[in-house]
Amino acid sequence: MSRFEPCEEFYRSMRVVTDRKQKRASNCGKVTAIAVKPAKQVEEKRRTNTKQRRVVVTGMGVVTPLGHEPDVFYNNLLNGISGISEIENFDCAGYPTRIAGEIKSFSTDGWVAPKLSKRMDKFMLYMLTAGKKALANGGITEEVLNELDKTKCGVLIGSAMGGMKVFNDAIEALRVSYKKMNPFCVPFATTNMGSAMLAMDLGWMGPNYSISTACATSNFCILNAANHIIRGEADIMLCGGSDAAIIPIGLGGFVACRALSQRNNDPTKASRPWDSERDGFVMGEGSGVLLLEELEHAKKRGANIYAEFLGGSFTCDAYHMTEPHPEGMGVALCIEKALMESGVAREDVNYVNAHATSTLSGDVKEYQALISCFGQNPKLRVNSTKSMIGHLLGASGAVEAIAAIQAIRTGWVHPNINLENPDTSVDANVLVGSKMEKIDVKVALSNSFGFGGHNSSILFGRYEQ
């Protein structure tokens, strides 16, 4: 026997190992069957029946250029008050655009710990404040909060831009030395941290993340939050969006895109969706948060139900980074899918809160898509909240969803201000005029679209037992 050949003892040990493997393999099917069957039975017993789960809106929170309470905000909209003014937060004399929907007065007192208020980016402060205001508006007191199953409570609030100022300040500090950088610059710049911090504060252990799809962010978050409830993964969700990009790098970036209005001498007239003299959108800032809840859960705690979430949809233009598809295909498809997924008849939709940002191509393409879907409905009324508060980027969809819900609640829809000479491509009879209008809103559609071709449509209706 060669000295490199294994000895007899080695062969005996290998035979033992091989025999064990063969025995294990021959029995593995039986073992698996015994182990899996009871587990499957347990899982089936625990699985929630999701077919009948309905989602309702039980709370709303806002931080906007027109007020920080849902009723104050909506009353200002109904009265046609503009929140657009000259930027005061920094010197923008050298910019071709010097106006925005800037929040002039804001306090986190009673909502966010002072230590965090000094460190966080404004987008997070707006988000935390709006989120907690939504809880208060929804009757979630400290006592109710303590009784909730925290594992079935989630937070899904996104941002298009994230903590731009925190990140920009870190870059400036880095020019001196990395030692000068804020140790919180990374976590407080990321878009997910607002949802995370709010969940930590509340102790909510359910679904928690953020979605960032540019200006369609809020609608993506709202629909996904509703789906978590429908699937039984949560009973209650805070959802929406927040952005605070009115800073030099934010303003400069959109100026470089040539996307902004330059009507600096008349700020309140600058945002003018569908008007023939529109020259670009106006930046805004703030946050909107909805409290969504499973119907039976809401009824059990005696919650005030503002509206019912009926469904929604997403599509992608797959066409251009910033321009909508020239035929509005992605938008029309999104609306059609939202109707199909929610089971809502097109004739039941009689109010649309449009994305309409006051850009030359976007306004018309959305209008054409709406007419292709609802053109046979003579009672359809369409408006744009952005005419008064500007474009809140990732927060716009949530704030506009709240406007739609308020329309359902009150029976009044706000005007389109600055619509003085409607574009020749639109029928002014479909658009709400310069004064608020009384409408019995049966189903409201809220649209949001974002750079990258992201389209989103969500539907709300009156809650009916």
TrEMBL record:
<dbReference type="InterPro" id="IPR016039">
    <property type="entry name" value="Thiolase-like"/>
</dbReference>
<keyword id="KW-0275">Fatty acid biosynthesis</keyword>
<dbReference type="InterPro" id="IPR000794">
    <property type="entry name" value="Beta-ketoacyl_synthase"/>
</dbReference>
<keyword id="KW-0444">Lipid biosynthesis</keyword>
<keyword id="KW-0276">Fatty acid metabolism</keyword>
<keyword id="KW-0012">Acyltransferase</keyword>
<keyword id="KW-0808">Transferase</keyword>
<dbReference type="GO" id="GO:0006633">
    <property type="term" value="P:fatty acid biosynthetic process"/>
</dbReference>
<keyword id="KW-0443">Lipid metabolism</keyword>
<dbReference type="InterPro" id="IPR017568">
    <property type="entry name" value="3-oxoacyl-ACP_synth-2"/>
</dbReference>
<feature type="domain" description="Ketosynthase family 3 (KS3)">
    <location>
        <begin position="52"/>
        <end position="462"/>
    </location>
</feature>
<dbReference type="GO" id="GO:0004315">
    <property type="term" value="F:3-oxoacyl-[acyl-carrier-protein] synthase activity"/>
</dbReference>
<dbReference type="InterPro" id="IPR018201">
    <property type="entry name" value="Ketoacyl_synth_AS"/>
</dbReference>
<dbReference type="Pfam" id="PF00109">
    <property type="entry name" value="ketoacyl-synt"/>
</dbReference>
<dbReference type="InterPro" id="IPR014031">
    <property type="entry name" value="Ketoacyl_synth_C"/>
</dbReference>
<dbReference type="Pfam" id="PF02801">
    <property type="entry name" value="Ketoacyl-synt_C"/>
</dbReference>
<comment type="similarity">
    <text>Belongs to the thiolase-like superfamily. Beta-ketoacyl-ACP synthases family.</text>
</comment>
<protein>
    <recommendedName>
        <fullName>3-oxoacyl-[acyl-carrier-protein] synthase</fullName>
    </recommendedName>
</protein>
<dbReference type="InterPro" id="IPR020841">
    <property type="entry name" value="PKS_Beta-ketoAc_synthase_dom"/>
</dbReference>
<feature type="active site" description="For beta-ketoacyl synthase activity">
    <location>
        <position position="215"/>
    </location>
</feature>
<dbReference type="GO" id="GO:0005739">
    <property type="term" value="C:mitochondrion"/>
</dbReference>
<dbReference type="InterPro" id="IPR014030">
    <property type="entry name" value="Ketoacyl_synth_N"/>
</dbReference>
